[in-house]
Design goal:
With about 210 residues, the chain is of the alpha/beta class. The protein contains six helices and nine strands. The protein binds glycinamide ribonucleotide (GAR).
Length: about 210
């Protein structure tokens, strides 16, 4: 059976979707390890409850390049022990360095809470016309701030330039009158929980991405 490593920073609902899909057989893969840079990350107890190895690997200093490089090396070493076929960033909020990416070429995917195009373009084509691309860590807030009619979720391969890798799956989410960052993010996450296990299965099967 194929093996997945999951990196997470948040409440871990996307990890839970993967654990559930693996348990029901909807995803024909085993989650081998979950790693977080935050000891209080909700994903770690979810992993332990499912009998999956959970590793808390705190990052001492985000801004010191030497500390950051050592961290990525250590993270890659730990993951290698678990021999993953695929590494899934499921709400992972640290940017991974090229030295980390080079250890797992073409084998890292990310779930992003907005619509991304294939590549580095600044616009994305949607059912509501062309919209500016939202990259970075605050895309739910940004979608509301810009008054977009829709946003969405994207699962894509991770490349050196953040949030630009080939898209595996992407789907739109409507923005409703009265939405807050929380209500919109919850709606996006419900979509992510559906997309991510499917995209993981596709990546494990070697599917490079979908036409949109
Ligand atoms: C998800 O919405 C995911 O798309 C986002 O963090 C959330 C994690 O939720 N990821 C990013 O913003 C990465 N740039 P979860 O901890 O409940 O799975």
């Amino acid at each position: 059976m194929k093996r997945i490593a999951v990196l997470a920073s948040g409440s871990g609902t996307n990890l839970q979707a993967l654990l559930d899909a693996s348990c029901t057989g909807a995803l024909n893969a085993e989650i081998a390890v979950v790693v977080s840079h935050r000891g209080d990350c909700g994903a770690l107890p979810r992993a332990l409850a499912a009998g999956v190895a959970a590793v808390s690997l705190p990052l001492a200093d985000l801004r010191d390049p030497a500390v950051r490089a050592a961290y990525d090396r250590q993270l890659a070493d730990i993951l290698t022990v678990f021999a993953p076929d695929l590494i899934v960033l499921a709400g992972w909020m640290l940017i991974l360095s090229p030295l980390f990416l080079d250890r797992f070429p073409g084998r890292i995917i990310n779930v992003h809470p907005a619509l991304l195009p294939d590549g580095v373009g600044a616009e994305v084509f949607t059912s509501q016309g062309t919209l500016p691309v939202l990259r970075g860590p605050r895309t739910v807030r940004d979608a509301l701030r810009h008054g977009f009619p829709i946003t969405g979720a994207t699962v894509h391969y991770v490349t050196i330039t953040v949030d630009t890798g080939p898209v595996i799956l992407r789907e739109e989410v409507p923005i409703l009158a009265g939405d807050t960052e929380q209500t919109l993010h919850e709606r996006i996450k419900r979509l992510e929980h559906r997309l991510l296990p499917r995209a993981v299965g596709m990546a494990l099967a070697g599917v490079p991405g979908e036409e949109h």
